[in-house]
Design goal:
single chain, alpha/beta, 2 domains, eight-stranded mixed beta sheet, elongated, disordered N terminus, LRR_dom_sf
Length: 362
């Protein structure tokens, strides 16, 4: 099934494929383009082709170009591994183009095949299938594009191959419809660094639930995630409302502290639940730093703390001059049970409005 999608059209049918280039081209983003001058030239060439939908225009535009430049144009069009139609349309214009772009299409086939393997490993929910219910029998990468949730259960080890495929698809904006991503068993936290890098461009804009609990990601993952967040604190993972990092051997070193600092700069503005229980190495100094970030600054006005819980205004808190603390929408925080006596955290959470419910779990 996957291979059939990459069959090259017959020459006599080329004219029917040309319009697909111009239909899919507006979806190509700068993230999928090389940053070299050849990438800029490829973009300009694609725009010129869009102005004249004909085979002769394509042949005239690429006349005299070296094969690597023709391949660069195809690479832009093949930016999304789950939508090869534009690249196929370009490749089908003539034999010389097909020859030049053969390596690009071969690479696209490999990534599409890896996406198919990824799909078999994950439970995916596609809203357009079965009346909006989750499906366990998705078989095509087109259905992967429709998925709103990817869940890798306890029986699946998220090894380097799975992480690399996820990072590639995330970076190419192939999974921007995801609202939930859950991985319960990661082989090595270092394998997650490509995924963190892929998030830098603001990918996964709809992701609301990110569950990475019960893995061994460690402090290195926190440092890598903080680095990704620093690219654009207001855009990276902007819709996440629930973040689970429980039982991940996090000791709250400089990386995790950097995450808290990013939260005060506007990252995770919609985060309502942060789950850090099970990280037995979490230090008291780390909790002190987090509590300091969560504590509202005195210069901001506060709603009368004497109001009961029933009197809380609906929705996230609204601060007069912007967020007065990290994670302004936070409502629930879980921490390791061994820190149940951390008075500074209790004070910080009770000083918020609405109050943050802090729980200490094993």
């Amino acid at each position: 099934m996957l291979g059939a999608a990459f069959q090259t059209p017959k020459i006599g049918e080329d004219w029917r494929w040309i319009p697909l280039i111009f239909f899919f081209f507006p979806r190509i983003t700068a993230d999928a383009m090389p940053t070299t001058s050849s990438g800029t030239a490829a973009s300009l060439l694609a725009n010129r082709l869009a102005a004249n939908c004909s085979i002769s225009a394509v042949e005239t535009s690429i006349a005299g170009l070296q094969d690597d430049m023709v391949a660069a144009v195809c690479r832009v069009l093949a930016g999304d591994p789950l939508s090869p139609e534009a690249a196929l349309a370009f490749a089908s214009t003539c034999r010389s183009v097909r020859r030049a772009v053969a390596p690009v299409l071969a690479e696209a086939r490999r990534w599409r095949a890896r996406a198919g393997v990824l799909l078999k490993e994950a439970h995916s929910g596609a809203p357009s299938l079965r009346g909006g219910q989750s499906c366990d029998d998705l078989t095509s990468t087109q259905q992967l594009r429709l998925a709103t949730g990817l869940v890798f259960g306890d029986a699946v080890v998220a090894d380097a191959s799975i992480c690399a495929t996820l990072a590639h698809l995330i970076g190419r904006r192939s999974l921007d419809g995801l609202e939930e991503l859950r991985i319960e068993r990661a082989a090595d936290g270092r394998d997650w660094r490509p995924i963190c890098s892929a998030l830098r461009g603001g990918a996964l804009p709809k992701l609301a639930f990110l569950d990475l609990g019960n893995n061994s990601l460690g402090d290195a993952f926190c440092a890598a995630l903080a680095d990704a967040l620093s690219a654009d604190p207001a855009a990276v993972l902007r819709c996440v409302s629930r973040l689970t990092l429980s039982a991940n051997r996090i000791g709250w070193d400089a990386g995790a502290e950097a995450m808290a600092a990013r939260g005060k700069l506007g990252t995770f503005r919609r985060l309502e639940g942060l789950y850090l229980h099970g990280n037995r190495a979490l230090s008291t100094a780390g909790l002190d730093a987090l509590a300091a970030r969560l504590t509202p600054e005195p210069r901001h006005s506060q709603i009368d703390a004497r109001l009961t819980l029933d009197d809380r205004p609906p929705g996230p808190p609204l601060w007069p001059d912007g967020p007065s603390c990290a994670l302004p929408s936070l409502q629930t925080l879980t921490l390791p049970k061994g820190h149940a006596e951390h008075e500074g955290m209790r004070v910080a959470c009770s000083a918020r409005w609405p109050y943050v419910q802090v729980k200490f779990w094993s």
